[in-house]
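Hi, does anyone understand the following?
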Amino acid sequence: MKKLNMKVNVAAALLAGALFVPAAMASTTNVIDFNELTSDDTYFVDPLTSAGFTFTNNCISSSNCLGVWGKDHIAQADPGHATIFVNRGFTITSMNRTDGEAFNLISIDLADDSNTGESSTIDFTFYHNGGFTNSQSVTLDNLIGLQTFVFNEANLTSVSWQTTIGDGGYGQFDNVVVSSVPEPEIYAMLLVGLGLVGFTSRRKKV
């Protein structure tokens, strides 16, 4: 009877871990669409805070480095909503979690500043927790509207990007897809689950 109870307990623990861990990790994904900033008028905002993240730009005039296109503006790459445009050419835009915690960057939507389909190159730099950095360049095709670029960069403290070729050094962005770095407790639960699997397998062999 004790062996049966033990098997039941182990099975229950494994099932709980299998259900909880993926759910906890998946539920942290978030799309920063800036739609709460939607307005009839174009206006400037820097620094910009949305969905727990802060966006800044290093232009000299700190009050109007970033702007929000009016929802019906001809340059709006997401008509009826909000996109963020860089108001000073060849400047660097950065993002980080407002609370200072690490995060994962999955993807971001980009468009040329005037939404006319001008091609440009944007250089991204990823700053990882622990001091490691890496870079990647992306190129906008000659298309009107937002284009999605997938990075899947993990455990970041911040990300910065700059239009280095074309579009006068400007650009606009939207739909930043991020996720939280899982808490250590989640990894601990996963390890416990794996340990129980190994223990159960060993018991069967014995």
